[in-house]
Amino acid sequence: MAKLPAMLSLRHLLMLSLAVNVSLILRMVYEGEREGTNKNMEGYNRIIQKSRLVIPSTSFANSTRKDRSGGMDNVINLDQGDPTMYGRFWRQMGDRTTIIIPGWQSISYFSDPTSICWFLEPEFAKEVVRLHNVVGNAVTEGRHIVVGTGSSQLILAALYALSNHDAPQPISVVSAIPYYSSYPSMADYQKSGLYKWAGDAYTFDKDGPYIEMVTSPNNPDGHTRQSVVNRNQGLLVHDLAYYWPQYTPISFASDYDLTLFTVSKSTGHAGMRIGWALVKDREIAKKMTKFIELNTIGVSKDSQLRAAKVLKTVSDSCEEENSQGGQESFFKYSYKMMEQRWKLLRAAVDSGDLFSLPEFSSGFCNFLNQESKTQPAFAWLKCEGDIEDCESFLRGHKILTRSGKQFGASPKYVRISMLDTDDNFMQFIDRLSIIQN
Ligand SMILES: Cc1ncc(COP(=O)(O)O)c(C=O)c1O
Predict the structure, then answer these.
(1) Residues in domain Alliinase C-terminal (predicted)?
(2) Final residue of a domain: which of 295, 319, 343?
């Protein structure tokens, strides 16, 4: 028998066969989608039942993916967390989220002059409270709601409101590494005299007041977090953009002083640019409102009305799911999608030695009423071995990601969006499997 080349060891053959397996499964998923026939889905299901990858039969059957003939040539951009993957659900909802706004409506700057946040649309506020009650992820009682143009604007409003305007020095803003990559630039881009980025919360040792951004689940690594500095002059902003059932078990109703949420990551409507803050202290809520008044004289009423309708549809879908014949709720649907994506990603990563992913424990989700997994909106991928700059390495394979450096961490890590279109995501999985050979 001819000798195998030294390079082609048994281990290599095993890895190759795993990669081919993953690639084959992905191709079957894709072909099944393209044909859109039950026959193909049955064939696909037979294959995945035999494989290590067990994926619910709903899979990507009605995927928005079109053409994957790009091979290795096209650029796959997973740098940003653009939540386009939820588009299919909303298309299926048809007119349930359609609103009509006549020309005479929403003319005034004011929504509710009696409220602290005078530009907050009452209908939007009502649906925010209802959704938190349905999901159980936040206490709304005794809270002031401040609406913002995305939670991005509310982060700045919070920094403005929490800083002492008479202090001789700007207050330090910290967050634990790896932190959301926008915090440093948001804190510093206007060179404010009120607040200043001071880096990693773990190593922060300056005396005096500080603001700590606590992101949970965390962007980029998906872990559940608590404040880390814990000194008595600390002011906390809890950024809970990802505290929703599709990403993490809802184990308690958050009950903090200042909490931020956004439709961008909860329902996927990033383009609507709507976020909200739940604020305990009346004076802080007033100052945040003032910031938004100075900044944009309020927040688009049209967007708030649209957001109210979307949140209402989500809450309705949760309540209807339990009634007979009710459709799958938005969160059940998105949980399953995230579950499938994480299974595919882990299978691709496990088919070789080049990459690794964080592990997460599961927990009981009070909303789903079952043990559920942590399946973050971003994959915090590590390049193993000699690859020191994971972002450049993947860029060499035409996969655009965000380097760990931008999160204050090692360049051996990259952040990869898990929320892109099925098409992009599947191309990425396919390419990752090929690279591992
Ligand atoms: C942790 C975190 N906070 C805030 C934001 C900003 O979201 P928005 O689209 O609501 O401005 C993001 C967006 O990616 C995020 O990841």
Answers:
(1) 76-434
(2) 319
Ligand 1: nearest atom to the Cα of 274: 10
Write the DSSP string, 87-155.
Answer: HHHHHHTGGGG-----TTTT-SS-S-TTSSSTT--HHHHHHHHHHHHHHT-B--TT-EEEEEEHHHHHH
CA of 151 to the centre of ligand 1 (A): 6
CATH number, domain containing residue 343:
3.90.1150.10
**Nearest-atom index, ligand 1, CA of 215:** 1
What pTM was estimated for this model as a whole? 0.87
Atom of ligand 1 nearest to the CA of 80: 14
Q: Is 98 part of a structural domain of the chain?
A: no
How confident is the prediction for the chain on average, in pLDDT? 87
Confirm whether 424 is domain-assigned.
yes
Q: Which residues contact 284 (CB under 8 A, 6 or more apart)?
A: 158, 161, 162, 257, 258
79 and 114 inside one domain: no
Q: Which domain holds residue 331?
A: 10-92+327-435
Q: How many domains are there within the chain?
A: 2
The residue contributing the CA closest to ligand 1 atom 16 is: 219
**180 Cα nearest atom in ligand 1:** 1
Cβ neighbours, 10 Å, residue 32:
23
Give residue 373 CA to ligand 1 midpoint distance, Å.
22
pLDDT at 58: 37
302 and 195 in a common domain: yes
Q: What is the pLDDT of residue 49?
A: 35
Q: Is residue 329 scored above 80 in pLDDT?
A: yes
